[in-house]
Amino acid sequence: DTPAKNPTKTHNLRVDGSRLWSTLMETARFGATPAGGINRLTLSDEDRAVRDWFRDACEAAGLEVGTDALGTQFALRRGRDMSRKPIACGSHLDTQPTGGKFDGILGVLAGLEVMRSLNDAGIETEAPLLLVNWTNEEGSRFAPAMMASAAYAGEFTTDEILAKRDAKGVSVGEALESIGYQGGEPVGAREIGAFVELHIEQGPILEAEQKTIGVVEGGQGIAWFDGTVAGFESHAGTTPMPRRRDAMLGLAEFALAVERIALAHAPTAVATLGEAEIVSPSRNVVPGQIRFTLDVRDPASAVLDAMEAALNEAAAEIGTRRNLAIALTRIWRKEPVPFHPHLIAAVDGAAEGLGLSRRRMVSGAGHDACNLAGRMPAAMIFVPCKDGVSHNESESAEPADCAAGADVLLHTLVTLANA
Ligand code: HGY
Ligand code: MN
Ligand code: MN
Ligand code: MN
């Protein structure tokens, strides 16, 4: 039955919200933490388990599943006109170590729910549809974040990504091999006509304004830095305070400078010193070497530049004053990215057709859609999450909002696939 001939058939179509919710709860067991979150680092055994589950669920829904050389999983739903590029949805199934049940996972499982709902309604779209689980969106185990979609968009070669190593020295290639997900498809070979990603907002705006849908117009810019503080190890009992070159005190001052620099560009700029490690730590040794990381973001590229300059100045000033060497190396820069007006309009139209409250917004978090926008039309749909909290085990969302987001995804995909 073709929706083009029978638009009301699609118009009244809704996903099965309780099936979607039970899928979210069912897959939360892979990497479940005692506090009710998920710790499912990319390419871990927990990630393998959820990937196997996802592959089986897609195949059970009649989708053809392929895997590329970075382990990204593509599940294809055939359309009437297979000469057209598929209209894609999806997100990521890997999580932060203190992850929740919805970040990334909602976008993938809502895509599965859309396919299941179209199957139940016996609806075939003109263009094929595609559901994608992108490898390593989080960037917690291997940097940078959103690495597989960045490689798909041509920002990195496959070999560059396969060679990236985690803190234990394991490479992406070795990790893929160990979980059996180094697929045969060349990265970027598969044509995609457009990509629409459903995601929780991971911020407080929709909930505060009591809006159900975020119509996302783009993603902000991101810069990641690796940092070192070099001082001098010395005896905790015999080294007088004025003679110390204490790397910990240098980092403490620098951390406050990071906050000051972000606040200087309020309200948009954010900066996070998320990792810090004393090399060869010991209770009775003055810290001499520290490694740390920085994550700096703003919707404007010029502000990212200004913050980077200010961070380097602060490092030099504190270093000179405390006889330390504080060095920053920028390892990743993602420019602010606008989404595609035609797709934004399709998302807005779908939400309007469903009578859902909504507002335009820019994404504070990075997403795979932000990388794909460099290669194809891309857009995002947000739904609220409780207190705007994410990257925390307490992350939660409402079943009705998840279903509403999936309905907007369904109607956006059908509109694009039948255009
Ligand atoms: O860091 C991010 O913005 C994404 O959640 N990985
Ligand atoms: Mn995410
Ligand atoms: Mn995330
Ligand atoms: Mn001693």
Automatic annotation (TrEMBL):
Keywords assigned by UniProt? Hydrolase, Metal-binding, Zinc
Looking at the record, the residues that make up the Peptidase M20 dimerisation domain are 220-317
Residues noted as binding Zn(2+) 1 in the record, renumbered to the chain: 92, 103, 199
Q: Which cofactor does it need?
A: Zn(2+)
Q: Which InterPro entries match?
A: Amidase_Cbmase (IPR010158), Bact_exopeptidase_dim_dom (IPR036264), Peptidase_M20 (IPR002933), Peptidase_M20_dimer (IPR011650)
Q: Does the keyword Nucleotide-binding apply?
A: no
Cofactor remark: Binds 2 Zn(2+) ions per subunit.
Chain positions recorded as Zn(2+) 2 binding sites: 103, 138, 391
Can the keyword Membrane be found in this entry's annotation? Answer: no
Give one Pfam family: Peptidase_M20
Superkingdom is: Bacteria
Please name the GO terms that the record assigns under molecular function: hydrolase activity, acting on carbon-nitrogen (but not peptide) bonds, in linear amidines; metal ion binding
Among PANTHER family, the record links this protein to:
ALLANTOATE AMIDOHYDROLASE, ALLANTOATE DEIMINASE-RELATED
Q: Which NCBIfam families match?
A: hydantase, PRK09290.1-3, PRK09290.1-5
Instruction: Give the UniProt family note.
Output: Belongs to the peptidase M20 family.
Q: What is this protein called?
A: N-carbamoyl-L-amino-acid hydrolase
